[in-house]
Amino acid sequence: MKKKLNLTKATPWLSAIGLFVLWELIVRIFNIPPYVLPTPSESIIVGWQFHEAIWMHAYHTLYTTLAGFAIAVVFGVVLGALVGSSRAIYDAANPLLVGFNSVPKVALVPVLVMWFGIGTVPAIITAFLISFFPIVVNVATGLATLEPELRDVLRSLGATRRDILIKVGFPRAMPYFFASLKVAITLAFVGSVISETVASNVGVGYLMLSASSKFNMPLVFAGLLVIAVMGIAMYEIFNVIERRSTRWANRGNQTN
Amino acid sequence: MSKSFVELNDVKLRYSEGDELALETTNMKIDKGEFIAVVGPSGCGKSSLLKLVSGLMPPSEGNVIVDGKEVSGPLKIVGMAFQNPTLLPWRTTLDNVLLPMEIVKPHRHRLRKHRAEYEERARKLLATVGLEGHENKYPWELSGGMQQRASLCRSLIHEPDLLMLDEPFGALDAFTREELWDILQNLWMIKPFTVILVTHDLREAAYLADTIYVMSKRPGKILVERENTLPRPRDQETTFTQPFTDLVHELRGHIRDVRES
């Protein structure tokens, strides 16, 4: 039993190490030149050589991502609550939201640069714009899928709209909300890095762009790895928060 | 009882303008503390009847009067239970039962200060339905029958004058169902409240109700109003007596006529 548990815990590490080993072998066996695909070991070594610069840029990327993500959470919850609690607002907002979400956000970066200049502000806004949609959709879904019988029970007790929202709507929407945070935080990284790549002189996106213009592919890949690690770390943090706060929704199948 | 507690006067119902009738001219008079059952084929508008009386749906024509006043919006003190127990999975059984207390006036303003008193009341009620010791369990840790008992407690905790039951025992196995009949009858006999029970189980109607209404298929209309004078408390033995089986037989006959018409 104990052995099995350890194995389950080790699985994600094993798969990650396996991927790196495979990558390393393929590059070496087929003799792929480093300016096409560097080995992971080389990327990590170069990453370590530049670790001070990477640290500075990564910190900046993390900061812009979290700032954009925080705005997305506030905005997403408010809009999701509005959309989910009123049929009229849902009908009015839905096509606009879907349309907006279909616009590639990279196409908006030049517009943002025109408005706010290059650097941190457009990166934060891009991270926000790309990550709020799943939060809105999930919060609205959680609120709108209230069982009609439960609504009847509450209304016939004299519950107001607000009562129903507070007592049932929001608690019910919590698992949906947390699930959307995991998606949104990874999207926020995409947004901030895109913006940094196009219009910034700081951040991992900028670092990768300038490294590739100098044909320093190992450093580009080191940047990619850093983004991936930050994404996994943030995802895992929200995963833990989700499991702690909505244990009732993750009760497994053993009972019932 | 000279004056009825619930009255339906020439009520008709359409779901939307221009639709065909869901409920044909319906008249009903229910006394205070009376236990009535409505039976009929599925889709005959039985559930709509509950929504009309509780004010969740306005009638298209006619009026509904409860406790001397015309119903114009959701009544504020009705207890309801459905086939689906609809308990909140993030609340313990005790907290689920206390939910109405957080909404119904004047309890909602008293609850915080007198929490212990209300919890005691909920525990007592849970004990009468056999849920002692399960107060702190979550709904998913309870069996279907236990969830339904908790749901029944939730519908009764605020001592409503009017209880609406929409096939509350429909999803339970036969033994649990009959056990819950006894529990419900027992609660009702201790302190009578007016009950409207919608069911398609004829034995259930015969076991529990004072008056049984048989409805036609769509558009729903009350065809038969049958008094049920079997002595109370009714128990397992009652169901094997001749008058009980005769009653069920008679009801079955009405339903057959309805389905063939």
What does this structure look like?
The complex is a heterodimer of chains A (256) and B (261). Chain A is mostly helical and 256 residues long. Helix content of chain A is 81%, strand content 0%. Chain A has one domain: Orthogonal Bundle (MetI-like fold). Chain A is built from ten helices and no strands. Chain A is globular, with a radius of gyration of 22 Å. The two termini of chain A are 24 Å apart. The model of chain A has no long low-confidence stretch (mean pLDDT 89). With 261 residues, chain B is an alpha/beta fold. Chain B is built from eight helices and ten strands. Chain B has helices at residues 46-53, 93-98, 107-110, 115-128, 144-156, 174-190, 202-208, 242-260, and strands at 6-13, 23-30, 35-39, 61-66, 69-70, 78-82, 162-166, 194-199, 211-215, 222-227. A six-stranded mixed sheet of chain B has the order 6-7-8-3-9-10, sandwiched between helices. Chain B has a four-stranded antiparallel sheet with strand order 2-1-4-5, covered by helices on one side. In chain B, strand 7, helix 6 and strand 8 (194-199) form a beta-alpha-beta unit. Chains A and B meet through helix 7 and helix 8 of A and strand 6 of B.
